[in-house]
Amino acid sequence: MGILDLSNINFYILIVVSVLNSIMLCLASAKLFQILQQSGYKLRGYNAWLKDTKIKFVGRLVMLSFLSLISVLVTNALLDGFGEYYSYFGLIFYVYFSIVFIINMSKIPQKAPLKQTRRMNRLIFTTSILVVIVSFFMMAITTEYVSFIKYGIIVLTPLFMPIIVPFANILNTPMEHIIRSGYIKKAKAKLKRMPNLIKIGITGSYGKTTTKHILNVMLSKKYSVCMTPHSFNTPMGLTKVVLKYLKRNNQILIAEMGARHIGDIKYLCDLIKPKHAIITSVASQHLLTFGSIENVAKAKGELVEAITDGYVVFNGNNIGSKKMYDECLKNKILAGVDLDGAFVNITNVKCTNTGSEFNLNVDGKSVVCSTKLLGMGNIQDIAISAALAYKLGVELQDIADAISTLQPIQHRLEIINNIGGVTIIDNSYNSSVESTQTSLDVLKLFEGKKIIVTPGIVEMGEKEFDANVDFGERIAEICDEVVILNLVNKEAILQGLKNKKFDENNIITADNLSDAKKKFPEIAGEGDVILFENDLPDNYT
Fold first, then answer.
1. Which H or E run contains 346?
2. What is the pTM of this model?
3. What's the rounded Cα separation, in Å, for the pair 172 and 177?
4. Kind of pairing, strands 344-352 and 355-362?
């Protein structure tokens, strides 16, 4: 093949063009990198995104290649006979269309933007090498055997990106495993050097992050506490916390533990080796990966099994958690709201649209508390947090004082006032069936027109359609207007609204939150309330 002759100038031109194409396509594939990152670098989540309504992204790639191919063919035909180097002129259109594609994709709002971590940089590097190889050999072959298109074949490389990116991820897997093992080994060694550190694991289908924050405030009344920030609840997330955030003077480490598969929490427990545990809930969230509610309970039970001589606190108001409490043979504690016989029992709850008041009853003692947090879900999280804080020596009055200072967690029933006279209830973190009911109960406390913006409940597997039909029925009983985002659960929610004879004129559909916001001036005015319920993560939009 003459093109591969090192004395042929075209050999070096093809290398340069291939490198430039690689850079351009890596920029154009930012969405693919982002989805893979949000899927925990696991192909199952990435493939689910490709199969869902997001085929529109692939459609954009097809349009990019199609327009570029037409331009290249026309250019080659018009310049035929002027010399082979004129074949490169058609690529100008490819570069132009690619730049337009990159700019337009960058303007799309992202709930969780791509994070430039070291692992992501390694993935991008491997992807770029693969693109260079594919680009070079595609051009080399067509130059030799399909002369009428020559170098223009490179415009088809965008079509391969949905395959090249995950393939690069597969190639990197052995190396990533070695790197991850090294970091985990360092984290374990650091924890071993802190034998007096009290380690607490928190898991559940929902309520983990809120409980973590509440417990942190309570325990900080007596201890120096390190809490995993944000939703750092994966092996590498917890490893990063131990290596970067945990200080030598910290007395307590609070570790949120997330799971999508059986064995995930056991792996985290082997890393952290928690002394105490809190089970916030066992519910139907993540059924898509767990398969059944029994598997969800089994996964949460891995944290219980890891506890030897510490306390395990259960949310008695959650059916799944209460069942685990009944079956538990460890040093167990029950806490909840209006729960006779529980170690911590919250009673006389009074909820308003500015907060809640209640009696906190612990071990025969009682204190009146007030909080800015809204909804019964938050009150339950306060109960289970108070149970462990009290057992670890925090005085009851100090717990009450901590409760009075609690602030809403971002995107979890967070109230945002005075947005053009409209009150916003931001509960846009991933929802469960239970949390949607809490959100609707909070919305019911407000005056004015009630508007909900939601894409429905996701990751529920076979139960997802029925759950969203029920969600639609519950929405119809409280809301005046409904904005349904995306297509994922549109039909199910519409069915639920229809079952309750909800006015179809008060139903709006939108492709995404950005499109929905453009319609707010038409449907919301001063004194109205908008609930953002479960704004889908980017791998669902």
1. strand 344-352
2. 0.83
3. 9
4. antiparallel
